[in-house]
């Protein structure tokens, strides 16, 4: 048997010898080689459900779908029911032209096949498609200290930071193989040392900074390192309220997409920072001060990829990552209140709020609030806005967003929340 320079249990050795079948042999070998690349000396058990980043049946991923067929044919499933990132298509709530639909059909040619495979692999249920699987309505919410195998960047940073779970920012498919084997390599953010902070980030703004912009600033400065953030408790208070979780969700997603942050600590707010304080900082930590001028510099640095800056926006996406139930209510109220101050009854821009299917269902159960939203012309969808923008016919449109992640990975133009609200009401920038 090949020497992997890794401590292997008897069961793992037998698995590598093929005693648990060829598929498990190949899956474990892949996980071990992945760990070896990062210097892992052993594997440790997964303690929570998997969340898969790959949710789309893209035509170029045929080898992945063939591999999944092989896993299913061997009668293998994940140890626990899993969740997966959002679906790419929702024509009922996200209007598309015939040309856009034609491109989507080619782009996601394997979507039906892949969704069928996911159900056979152990998908939690038909609604388990969201990047915010940790929402209480969805149910894949890990506990503090649990070791996970996740890959979705915004979910990884939330689980590690806000919930205190432990997962590396794994690559797509690897998280599935780890879920099948039931183990992950021990390195990085699953270790105590890997969770120590190399940066002290001091927030010295006059008001609570926009979560998306603060996360962007942190991500671009620290890149993949762990930051310890001080000064936010002045605005958010100590401890973890629902509104604080929403703020940190959006901040973390921006830090993960504008950099590669997989974990941050916030003094007096996140669990490990409450327990260990500044002892989480390494001895030779670096310092980064974020004030009003720095945030303005960050926003001014964002490139605008529209060919014509004077175009009227065609679509506005809010919810990347997916919105919480409280955020849907908040946007519904802000839009309704803003319209009430004008002679208009509906938004002037095609405005789409994205959230998990289970979160949407709960909001729709509040018939009065949902009707209020419908009356304003706003749409709710479960899709991933990034998947929509991956269609070149869609990315040609002037799309606006308050999401730094969507801005980073697409041609969408970024605006602050208050600017977004003004634009969708008036219809112009």
UniProtKB/TrEMBL annotation:
An annotated Gene Ontology molecular function: lyase activity
Pfam families, A to Z: AcnX (PF04412)
UniProt entry keywords in alphabetical sequence: Iron, Lyase
Domain (Phosphomevalonate dehydratase large subunit-like): residue spans on this chain: 6-411
Top-rank taxon, per record: Bacteria
Keyword Lipid metabolism listed: no
PANTHER family named among the record's database cross-references: DUF521 DOMAIN PROTEIN (AFU_ORTHOLOGUE AFUA_6G00490) (PTHR36577)
Protein's name according to its UniProt entry: DUF521 domain-containing protein
Annotated organism of origin: Clostridium thailandense
């Amino acid at each position: 048997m090949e020497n992997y320079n890794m401590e292997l249990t008897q069961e793992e050795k037998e698995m590598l010898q093929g005693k648990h079948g060829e598929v498990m042999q190949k899956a474990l070998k892949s996980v071990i080689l992945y760990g070896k690349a990062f210097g892992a000396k052993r594997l440790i058990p997964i303690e929570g459900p998997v969340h898969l980043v790959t949710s789309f049946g893209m035509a170029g991923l045929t080898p992945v779908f063939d591999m999944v067929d092989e896993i299913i044919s061997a009668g293998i499933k994940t140890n626990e029911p899993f969740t997966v990132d959002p679906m790419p298509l929702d024509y009922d709530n996200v209007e598309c032209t015939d040309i856009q639909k034609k491109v989507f059909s080619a782009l996601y040619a394997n979507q039906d096949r892949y969704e069928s495979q996911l159900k056979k692999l152990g998908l939690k249920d038909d609604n388990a498609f969201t990047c915010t699987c940790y929402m209480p309505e969805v149910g894949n919410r890990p506990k503090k200290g649990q070791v996970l195998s996740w890959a979705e960047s915004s979910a990884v940073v939330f689980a590690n930071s806000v919930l205190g779970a432990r997962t590396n920012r794994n690559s797509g498919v690897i998280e599935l193989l780890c879920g099948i084997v039931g183990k992950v390599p021990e390195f990085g953010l699953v270790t105590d040392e890997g969770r120590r902070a190399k940066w002290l980030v001091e927030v010295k703004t006059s008001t609570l900074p926009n979560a998306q912009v603060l996360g962007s600033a942190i991500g671009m400065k620290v890149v993949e390192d762990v930051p310890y953030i001080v000064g936010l408790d002045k605005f958010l208070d100590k401890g973890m309220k629902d509104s604080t979780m929403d703020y940190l969700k959006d901040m973390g997603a921006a830090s993960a997409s504008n950099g590669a942050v997989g974990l941050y600590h916030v003094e007096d707010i996140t669990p490990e920072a409450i327990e260990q304080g500044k002892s989480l900082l390494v001895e030779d930590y670096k310092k980064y001060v974020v004030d009003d001028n720095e945030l303005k510099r960050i926003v001014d640095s964002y490139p605008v990829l529209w060919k014509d800056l004077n175009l009227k926006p065609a679509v506005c996406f809010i919810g990347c990552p997916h919105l919480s139930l409280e955020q849907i209510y908040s946007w519904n109220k802000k839009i309704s209140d803003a319209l009430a101050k004008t002679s208009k009854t509906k938004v002037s821009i095609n405005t789409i709020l994205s959230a998990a299917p289970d979160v949407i269902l709960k909001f729709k159960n509040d018939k009065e609030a949902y009707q209020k939203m419908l009356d304003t012309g706003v749409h709710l969808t479960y899709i991933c806005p990034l998947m929509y923008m991956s269609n070149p016919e869609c990315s040609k449109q002037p799309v606006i967003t308050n999401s730094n992640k969507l801005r980073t990975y697409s041609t969408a133009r970024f605006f602050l929340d208050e600017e977004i609200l003004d634009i969708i009401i008036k219809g112009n920038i």
